[in-house]
Structures are given as C-alpha cells and as structure tokens.
Amino acid sequence: MRTQVAIIGGGPAGLLLSQILHHQGIDTVVLERRSRAYVLSRIRAGVLEASFADLMRAAGASERMDGKGIVHEGANIAHPDGMFRIDFRALTGGNVVIYGQTELTLDLYDARDATGGTTFDNCSGVELHDIDSTAPYVTFCHGGQDHRLDCDFIAGCDGFHGPSRQAIPEDRRTEFEKTYPFGWLGLLSETPPVADELIYASSARGFALCSMRGPNLSRYYIQCPLSDDPEDWPDDKFWRELRRRLPDTVAEQLISGVSVEKSIAPLRSFVCEPMQWGRLYLCGDAAHIVPPTGAKGLNAAASDVRDLSQAFLSHYRDGDGHALEHYSSTALARIWKTQRFSWWMTNLLHRFPEQSGFDQKMQQAQLNQLAVNSSAQRVFAENYVGLAL
Ligand code: APR
Ligand code: PHB
User: Fold this and answer.
1) Residue 199 in contact with ligand 2 by CB distance below 6 A
2) Which residue of 16, 154, 285 sits with most ligand 1 atoms within 8 Å of its CB, as the best mutation to test the pocket?
3) At a CB cut-off of 8 Å and minimum separation 6, what does 197 contact?
4) Are residues 311 and 361 in the same domain?
5) What percent of the chain has pLDDT over 70?
6) Which residues of 244-274 are buried (b: 16+ CB within 10 A; e: fewer)?
7) d(Cα 79, Cα 297) in Å, to the nearest integer?
8) CA-to-CA distance for 225 and 318, rounded, in angstroms?
9) What is the pLDDT of residues 108-154, one digit of tens each?
10) 232: domain CATH number?
11) Please, are residues 17 and 112 in contact by the beta-carbon 8 Å criterion?
12) Which tens digits make up the pLDDT trace of 185-209?
C-alpha cells in the first residue's frame, strides 16, 4: 500500500490534517489504534479560536459547527473580591466558538467518510521505519493481517502516548515538562449553563470553571487532589463544593442535576523539541501538552495542522520544501507562547499545596490588576481568542 502522507492517530489533529490535505489534492491514510466509538467518547475542552473554525471550513467539515457552535465574545473571572468580564470583542475584535470536541470529531469522521478517505481503525503494532531516509514506511496490524504502508512523509498525530515522538532518537530530542500538584474533576450534566459565558473562578477552596456544550448541556470543573477518584465525588458533594467556590450570586443561579460523565484529569505542560525528524512531523499532543486552563490544547493542535498542511502544499504544488524544512521552528515559536499563557493562567487561578501567604497575595494582586486594567485585559483577550501568528 502507498500514500503520500501516512497519518498516525485519528484524533482531532490527524483527522483535520487528513481532510485539509484531501482538499489540497494530497493523498493520506489514517492509522488509528482505537475504535471510533472510543475516540468519540473522550470528553475534552470545546473552546475554538476563530482560526480553528476557518480550518474546519477548509476541511469541509464546518456545517454543523457553523449552525450549532455558540459564539462567545467574552468570559468572566471570579475571585475572592468579586467578578469581572473580559470583553474579547471590544479589546481585540475577536471571539471564540463553543463547540464540543465530540461533535467536532464526529464531523471530521463524517467528512472523511464522505470523501472516501482511507482510515484504519483498531489497528495495532504501528511502527515507523526509515524516517531519516527518502523512503519511510509504516507497518501495522489490522483485522489480523500485517500491512506495510509506504509514503513520502509521516505525520505523527498519535497523542502524548503514541509511538511517533519515540521514533526521534532519544539523544536528538529534548523534552520539557512541568506537572502540577492537582487535577481537574469534570462533570457533564444535562442542565442549562449557569451563565451565558464561561466563568473561571479562583477561590480560597481552589479553582472552579463553569463551561458548557449547549443550551441544556453544562460542563463544570473543580480543582481536586491528584489522589482523588471520581468515586470519592458523588454528585451532591460535587455540586456543594462547586457552589462554595463561586460568588454567591452565581451559586444561587446554579441548576444542578444528575451527572452524565465524571472524570479526573491531571494537569501537565510538555514540549518536545524538535517537532520533526527526517520525514516525520509531529502534530498536536504528540509534541506538546498544555494544562486545560485557557482551553488551548485543541487550538494548538489545529495550528500545527495549519502550518504542516501549508508546508505540504508548498512542497507538492510548488516544489518548495522551505516551509517543511522549518516546520518545527515555526511551530515551536508559536507553541511556547501558548505554553506561557496556559501556565500563567493555571498559576493565577489555582491553589497550590505549598503556597505561602506571599504567593497568595501575588495572585490576588494580579487578579485585582486584571479586573481594572484594560492593558492587562487586552493581553489576556488576545491570548484567549488566539494570537495572530
Ligand atoms: N497507533 C495508532 N494510533 C494511536 C497510537 C498508536 N500506537 N497511539 C495513540 N494513537 C491515537 C489515539 O488513540 C488517539 O485517537 O492517536 C490519537 C491521538 O489523539 P489525541 O490524543 O486526541 O491528540 P490530538 O489529535 O493531538 O488532539 C489534540 O485534542 O484530544 C485533545 O487533549 C487533546 O487537546 C488535545 C487536542
Ligand atoms: C470545557 O468546556 O471543557 C473547557 C472550557 C474552558 C477551559 C477548559 C475546558 O479552559
């Protein structure tokens, strides 16, 4: 079997890349370890930068998103001294679109099916070969049979635990990592969201977030110890704790209900340098992870896809390999800015176990400045809606 670009991983990054390349006339094969049902069951953030929405259009997968996505022109920040709104439109002219990753992945799968693209789900034993030669290939097992996929290039879109990053020789890559001493306990419920826009809350009891997926589907999070298990958090206990972390005026409005899903996610900042090796290019979580504060994970993956698809287009259409050669440095310059914002927002809003009284005063001073200072708000808003790069 032969293709131009072998894509390892059928998460949002791999699917988006395959569809954009398809529309540019570039042939791809997607290899995914899991079943579709499993990929679709993963609940992740659903805040899309405007440039992400443009990519979904380029992938021919934007119809439902354009109809059902909710445009947000601001977000709220609650803290012990009050609550304030950051007005994205007034400060930057931009906005974000609220659209869940489950829906988005489904739209990309549908688009792939409609265009007849080749995807192998449930494949195992994916291995990359000869990536530093001009004839790389991938081997894998599907339906009980061994396969070999020859290609011009490999896109490693296989997430944090996939084999692609490991295929870069260990002495030729550097991994930068920071873990945080808490997790996020998330709960999905079929209840109307407590507010029209997101509320990020810093409280003496820890961080909380009020988010949404639709008019009757809410997503809430609270910071919790990493040692906790979702079983430790019956719904009642979750709602009680959430209310205690929100301003009274918000807590009074909160409509609770039975949880549809509940899970705990650790928080991590991670970057692998470089993001390419020979004919292998890493995209999305395979190369970098951000903590969820600010919802940048999916958007960072999409920006990689944009840069890489443009680089492939220059190569195939114009015979110009410059952008491919520089993919890693272009992507990393952007990624470190995204890392900084996600790290900063995480530090601003969470309680840390070892935090001193001074550290808490510094958080408060930053929040108080953000509450009143339009320059500080503009920097926040520019990062939140997505930096022009
Ligand atoms: N072989 C084939 N596929 C694999 C392998 C493997 N050995 N290992 C992992 N995969 C698949 C996973 O099953 C998953 O479907 O790669 C896919 C990677 O998807 P994500 O982890 O979602 O990563 P990515 O597509 O980069 O998504 C970027 O979306 O899901 C969020 O947290 C994620 O915010 C990030 C963004
Ligand atoms: C979510 O809706 O799941 C969400 C929203 C904003 C974040 C993180 C997660 O910063």
Assistant:
1) no
2) 285
3) 72, 74, 75, 76, 85
4) no
5) 100
6) ebbbeebeeebebeebeebebeebebbbbbb
7) 25
8) 53
9) 999 999 999 999 999 999 999 999 999 999 999 999 999 999 999 99
10) 3.30.9.10
11) no
12) 999 999 999 999 999 999 999 999 9
Q: Is 200 part of the annotated catalytic residue set?
A: yes
Which pLDDT tens digit goes with each residue over 336-349? Answer: 999 999 999 999 99
Does the structure show a pLDDT above 90 at 44?
A: no
pLDDT range class, residue 40, cuts 50, 70, 90: confident
CB distance 310 to 194 below 8 Å = no
pTM of the model: 0.96
Angle in degrees, CA 249, 254, 256, rounded to 5 = 160
What whole-number distance in Å separates Cα of residue 386 and Cα of residue 338?
A: 9
Q: By the 8 A CB rule, do 128 and 138 touch?
A: yes
| C-alpha neighbours within 13 Å on the C-beta side of residue 113 | 8
Q: What is the C-alpha to C-alpha distance for residues 331 and 26, in angstroms, rounded to an integer? A: 21
Res 45: pLDDT: 78
Return the CATH number at 41. Answer: 3.50.50.60
Residue span of the structural domain in which 298 resides: 5-72+95-177+268-345
Q: Is residue 292 annotated as a catalytic residue, yes or no?
A: yes
For ligand 2, the distance from its centroid to the CA atom of residue 292, given in whole angstroms, is 7
Same structural domain for residues 283 and 162?
yes
Residue nearest to atom 5 of ligand 2 (CA): 45
Catalytic residue among 109, 180, 327, 384: 384
Active site residue 72: yes
Give the residue, by CA position, lying nearest to ligand 2 atom 3.
45
Residues contacting 26, CB < 8 A, separation 6+: 4, 5, 312, 313, 316
Is it the case that residue 389 has pLDDT exceeding 80? no
150 lies in the same domain as 252: no
Helices in the chain by DSSP H: which ranges?
Answer: 12-23, 36-41, 50-58, 63-68, 88-92, 101-114, 235-245, 248-253, 297-318, 322-325, 327-349, 357-372, 374-385
> Does some domain include residue 164?
yes
Which secondary-structure segment (H or E) carries 85? strand 82-87
Active site residue 221: no
Asked if residue 301 has its Cβ within 6 Å of ligand 1, the reply is yes
Instruction: Answer yes or no: do 148 and 187 share one domain.
Output: no
